[in-house]
Amino acid sequence: MKIESIKPGRRDKEKLVIRTECGSYISARLDDAYKLKVGDEISCEEAAELERKYNAQTVKKAAARSLSHHSMSKHDLAKKLRDRGFSEEESAETAEWFEERGLVDDEAYAKAAAEYYKRRGYGELRIREELRRRGLERALIDETLERLEPPQDELSELIRKKLRGGEFDADKKRKLIAFLVRRGFKFDEIRAAMNELQLDTEDLSDV
Asked: pTM of the full predicted structure?
């Protein structure tokens, strides 16, 4: 089939829109199609390859823009691309491409995310939930949490802020423990922190 027209893309300056005599339109990258001209013959296979290369470039640009805002896991990057309308295959291959080049690093991402939530006053159970939500593998989550420093200092500070020097009665203790459990702390961690602060933990397991 012959090329009837070649025009630059309206928004993408690195894009050429090629119209063939059969009425079909092909999107192509400049560096793949700069030698083509009106009247040239182009096969269906050549047209498909031009389209494939352009699409691959487009999804990589979208991924790079997403990563420029903040780091992401491979799972989240692929999901982000799917949400933007790219196919399952394109999204997975692009996320894999970025991982192979070290631009997506699930291990570093897991460590940074775990530290972030720890600083915000979350316990291991809640951090595990957040990492799982980001599509990280269980083995990686386990390894990341094993390396995480105990939350004792953060937990003690959190308790101090919640109490603010007020009276520590049964109702306040019940609310405090419920709050800390929602934050993902374990009962033995809560008990240890409260003991350190000389707070009553006698009936902690019954709360």
From this structure: 0.72
